[in-house]
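Hey, I was hoping to borrow your eyes for a little while. I've dropped the whole record in just underneath, so have a look:

——
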Amino acid sequence: MNKYGSQKPHIRFRTPEQLQGYLERAGNAEFNFRAYPISGSPETFHYSGEEKVVTRENDRKSFDNLEDFTCYTFQCDAEGYSHTEYVDFELLN
């Protein structure tokens, strides 16, 4: 069991670009995942590779593009600078 109480492995992304590249390389895959920021609460998302859209599960908010999603996840400021050191990513299915 990992520090999040899950048996599933996590991938640690240290930059928004790393996370965005991972999602871009997923091709047309569809999957659910949980993002654990270094501060704040984890959130669950759905990724549609065919549409290149990430949707937040709790309120069904879709992000306009992958850059907006990764900036949200890394708590970027208005200039795009990340306010967190890393985000842990857990693939749920």
Observations:
- The first strand starts at residue 10 and ends at 13.
- The radius of gyration is 12 Å.
- The first helix runs from residue 16 to 25.
